[in-house]
Queue: 3 jobs
Job 1
Amino acid sequence: MSEQLVMRTVAESQSERSEIIFPADANGLGNLFGGRLMQYIDLVGAMAASRHARATTVTASMDHLDFVAPVHVGDLLILKASVNRAFRTSMEVGVKAMVEDVREQRLKHVSSAYLTYVAVDPTGHGLVVPQLVCETDHQRRRYEDAGRRREMRAGETLRKKRLREELPPEWHL
Ligand SMILES: CC(C)(COP(=O)(O)OP(=O)(O)OC[C@H]1O[C@@H](n2cnc3c(N)ncnc32)[C@H](O)[C@@H]1OP(=O)(O)O)[C@@H](O)C(=O)NCCC(=O)NCCS
């Protein structure tokens, strides 16, 4: 297949997942454990990336994640994921987590993150993903922002590589 000939719209892969929070997922304060929320974010992000690529994807990175407000036992958690930009074999996906107040019919933002997924074949080799077609101004803005974040990530990856090289040899696996 020629590289990047296939194109897919943002809407084609937009994904949603909802969860009712049970006590088994809570910390001592009765709030959703942060690690579980990260798992939900990763899962819904992978759904969007795999739908866009129509292939298995692996998580390459999760950017800075803020826990804006706690999620309580019994809350209805809604997670929405959207591919912001497709590169060659990787895609940036934005995920927003919200709690739905079912009585007031209102959504409260509790967390959001940007994740990068890489499409892989069954042997783990990278697959070229379809280009992303933006249909709205909002999608175009997210597309541009994702390009800027990719540049920042590249600088960060280089910085981490240098840091690893500076570790004492006995720490190298
Ligand atoms: C992610 C992974 C496939 C990248 O493999 P790699 O050999 O480093 O691949 P490359 O350097 O050729 O990069 C492939 C793509 O991944 C992107 N990438 C690699 N590391 C990245 C990172 N840390 N953050 C964001 N993107 C990254 C590259 O930019 C490139 O994108 P492009 O093809 O769209 O330009 C590999 O590191 C891997 O398998 N990691 C483990 C994934 C996993 O197990 N995830 C679950 C974690 S629990």
Job 2
Amino acid sequence: MIPQMVDVETDVVVVGYGAAGGAAAISASDNGANVVILEKSKVPTSNSRCSAGNQMYPKDASFKEQYKKYLHAVSKGTVDKDTVDVFVEGLLKNPEWFKKLGGDLQVFRFPPATISLYIPSVTYSHIPEAKGLQLELYNLKQTETCPEHTGGDRVWNLLNRNLKKRSNVKIMLGTPAKELVKNDKGEIVGVIAESQGKSIFIKAKKGVIMTCGGFEFNEDMKREYLTPNPIFSFGNPDNTGDGIKMCQKIGADMWHMTKQATYLAPKVPDYEAAFVINLLAPGFVYVDKRGRRWADETHIECHEFWLPLSDFECEDFEYPRVPTYLIFDEEVKKIGPISYATMGYNVIANKYIWSSDNQAEIKKGWIVQAKNIPELAKKLSLDEKTLVATISRYNELCKANKDTDFGRPREFLKALEPPFYAISLWPCLFNTQGGARRDKDARVLDPDGKPIPRLYAAGEFGSIWGFLYQTSTNFSETIIFGRIAGENAAQLSPVES
Ligand SMILES: Cc1cc2nc3c(=O)[nH]c(=O)nc-3n(C[C@H](O)[C@H](O)[C@H](O)COP(=O)(O)OP(=O)(O)OC[C@H]3O[C@@H](n4cnc5c(N)ncnc54)[C@H](O)[C@@H]3O)c2cc1C
């Protein structure tokens, strides 16, 4: 039912103020629409702000068609080819778009010392479609006009500064959207939101754009759609999948609900979000709950950890790798913080600075320390015999300079000597990919594949990536489909009242 009383009237309502919401609002405003952005958090600390903000591009335009073919292949039919093609075409427009807003892209390279955070530029370089493909990682340059310390924060603040200059954009913080409002013709004509404890109706004469992110902090949804369990997140605690229920209620189809980008990382009870791990020297191994090594620790693509972590042992009825224990040596401890300083909610919102020698985290009891392996096993409640055998075996492999168990490369084989350190690691989401199904024009679809009139979506809320995530494409899709959604909604004629 349409509420009789209209509290705010506008052309386009944008639900959620991350990068997708910001891009959608700018584009709708540029196309002449009045825009209201509804943001649940009082201080926006979206996943976009917490993110590294890295974006993958074809190295030059000559790789454009091959990149499309590669993405068709790795998507395995979970998204239509047209949408992927629109993504790649849109990608090539991003640099110019950022420039107009006052931001410049630059090539970004992770420091070579990063051993745990494995991100090849072409993830599945062995498939035929990848042969010869060259991609390059970019993020926004830190300049006087984009001064923020971290990549995602720079982009979000650039969008924010541009939006604040626009008289046709109103930003309502601390105002969560609760329901979508549909008229008799099935068109979406507004949103019911909560403002200062009261329910308000924001009428949208042209359309509503859903950019309210994923469900990284909704325990029920994670249990229902994702494996393994539990699973934590590096991002924004207000991402609780609200848009999923709102869209289900008005008959939208859902897609990619079981897909995710998940790494392995420390999660301590004192903080809601997890810390991104970053190991700078090779003296470390991962062991499971039984004290067994389970992989070449240096070559698991950092977004795809959910796959090996989802290994479930029916006999013991548990995920044996959840948690996994990181065991490391003095060199790893001393060389630098084991947590990445330039991304994550704990860095952006909580301003947590991990100590440079990890000593503060030892003092807090997050990292345990032991003189020998039996003592470490006791502290971690692991089977002593198994852990002793695992570390001895690993040290033998290092001595032989060949990991015949898991194929860890020679340059990363370093025997572990006392003292030993350990911390438990959990599956941790960069983000979920699920949400409302949409088409290449960013229109939300019903289960018959028909667009729901005047409803659009972009970004992590129903990401286009539905099989294995292609590194650093989530951030760029927020901008590409945010821009498309904003433009398309703004160009509609106003709803007949
Ligand atoms: C640590 C980290 C590093 C990452 N690094 C990269 C990277 O380098 N490259 C890459 O491609 N991707 C990366 N990602 C993923 C990427 O950042 C996200 O996929 C992307 O930023 C999502 O943007 P978004 O605008 O769709 O959603 P978000 O940025 O999450 O914004 C959603 C907003 O909606 C708000 N919201 C939620 N519910 C409601 C409601 N009911 N009403 C109103 N507002 C609501 C939320 O509070 C939030 O502000 C990273 C993620 C993390 C956490």
Job 3
Amino acid sequence: MENRLFARRFARPACRVKAAPFLLLLGLGAIAGLLGCAQKNESQADDSEEGYALLGVVEAVDAEANQLTVAHEEIPGFMEPMTMVFRVGPGDVKVVKKGDRIRARLVRDEDGGFRLIKIWPIDEQAAAEMRKVNKRLAKRVAELEQGYYIGPGEAFPDFALLDQYAEPITPERLEGKAFVLNFIFTRCQEANMCPLSTSKMSQLQRMAAQKGIEDLAFVSVTLDPKYDTPGVLRTYAETYGIDGSNFHFVTGEKAAVHQMIRSMGITAIEDGENVIHSLATTLIGPDRQIVKRVEGSQWKPEAFLEAIEQL
Ligand SMILES: [Cu+2]
């Protein structure tokens, strides 16, 4: 097996496409124009700095009112440790459970109410496990030559990220399943880019279900891990009416997500609340070999369904 992989890696350089020199020739504006998803940047401020950093333990979840009761630690210069009720997003009340330790940003609503955004569950043990796996992803990316990515005929890299249920997603969890992978971010305003891509993934999921195809999964990796928490992705998936049983919207530590983006030859440049990005859709076989890759948003669910049926 090792020989085969070894031989594959060196025998098939043609399946890696040289992309970077082309991109380097283009200015930022040109990339924005060509690749879409460019929105006017209203604020230059780094939104990770919005509000106050908060650490706490969830004491109650009110799914109806979209509120969490959180016993939080001291917020230096702002608040003593105390238990209070916070407004949160509709996805957050579904992802976060009583007893969870969380980190979040505390902001004020226009009416003065307290709101938590960017809510992440804290699980040090799981995070350490995931970092271990993502080190292998980082190593794989570091081995890629400038401008090359991991393409058809090669093995899909190791990774460990979190889905819209805050459950870890790894190739092991997808073992024995083919999966279709793409990249999106929930704030994308360009109808022809992420929204279209998500609609097509959802369409492909329905088509495959109608054909009775099992052992198939869908993975959409965020291009905006700073904003797209599991809770935000949960709301996004539900807005599209997606069956979450085999469709994972994934996020995680920024470095790991960016390595995943890089490994698949995607460009993603943060620009305020927007991400200027390219797109690609990839089919990975149950043996973890990359089978098919289509650049941009013009891929056809029918063509992917056909490729899936041929696996
Ligand atoms: Cu987009």
